[in-house]
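Is this the right way to post structure tokens for a design question? Let me know if I should format differently. Anyway, here goes:
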């Protein structure tokens, strides 16, 4: 059996086209586009690249966007003042603070300063708390994208799902998104003993570790849906947590790296910004 490859690029492009059409309707109704502001502190090359990709996607979807770049020496007061200004801006509906921030800044405090109604990354304590209670309008983009990819190929209710990640950005939001869809969820992490004994029970296996090839074919339940949200660079090429070539002979559905979860993150960011704009102008 060879797995069906879940084409995240194709799904993301479809969603981005749907968002573009909705943006046209929004502009026709309100006379202005949804607006996204990014906050970039420092000169990390990867962060600059990610922010650039997000603004390019905004332009293609018809959004208004602006980037606010601060030096790595920016103070806590400087960053907080900028976030507060963006919270008050009428033309900005979504705010994204690019993380990680420089070590001298209180990242949690800054993320919590973003208005929950503009928190298109879903990182604020308010939106994460609402996720525990049900599902807020704005959910972290990568977990939201993972769920959408799963729902492209299978149902979630009643499934045994194993998540290998417990971060506040990916793993913890995923836990509640899955529970809210009636999955039975097991969370694994760096201290989990005998990881394979857990992964082999998973109808749906989601991994986001960032270590190339750690999930082998023998760790996968035959026919399982495997979602690889991990990325590592090996010999200049992006590789996922899953040993893809051998895993695809066991899994039922599987995402590639690249071309799986990655494209979905920006698509979900655009969708979140559109949702925030619509909610601001009901």
């Amino acid at each position: 059996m060879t797995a069906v490859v879940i084409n995240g690029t194709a799904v993301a492009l479809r969603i981005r086209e749907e968002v573009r059409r909705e943006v046209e309707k929004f502009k026709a109704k309100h006379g202005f586009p949804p607006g996204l502001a990014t906050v970039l502190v420092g000169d990390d090359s990867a962060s600059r690249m990610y922010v650039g990709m997000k603004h390019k996607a905004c332009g293609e979807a018809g959004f208004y966007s602006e980037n606010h770049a601060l030096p790595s020496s920016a103070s806590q007061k400087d960053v907080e003042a900028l976030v507060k200004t963006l919270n008050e801006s009428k033309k900005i509906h979504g705010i994204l603070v690019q993380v990680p921030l420089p070590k001298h800044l209180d990242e949690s405090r800054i993320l919590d300063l973003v208005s929950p109604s503009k928190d298109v990354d879903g990182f604020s304590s308010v939106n994460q708390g609402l996720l525990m209670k049900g599902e807020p309008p704005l959910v972290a983009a990568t977990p939201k994208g993972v769920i959408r990819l799963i729902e492209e190929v299978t149902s979630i209710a009643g499934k045994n799902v194993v998540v290998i990640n417990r971060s506040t950005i990916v793993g913890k939001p995923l836990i509640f998104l899955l529970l809210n869809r009636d999955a039975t969820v097991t969370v694994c992490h760096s201290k989990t003993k005998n990881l394979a004994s857990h992964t082999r029970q998973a109808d749906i296996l989601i991994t986001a570790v960032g270590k190339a090839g750690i999930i082998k074919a023998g760790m996968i339940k035959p026919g399982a849906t495997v979602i690889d949200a991990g990325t590592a660079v090996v010999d200049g090429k992006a590789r996922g947590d899953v040993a893809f070539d051998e895993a695809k002979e066991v899994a039922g559905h599987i995402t590639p790296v690249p071309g799986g979860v990655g494209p979905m993150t920006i698509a979900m960011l655009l969708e979140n910004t559109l949702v925030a704009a619509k909610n601001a102008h009901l």
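Format looks fine. Someone answered above. Worth noting: Residues 6 and 67 are 33 Å apart (CA to CA). The two ends are 49 Å apart (CA to CA).
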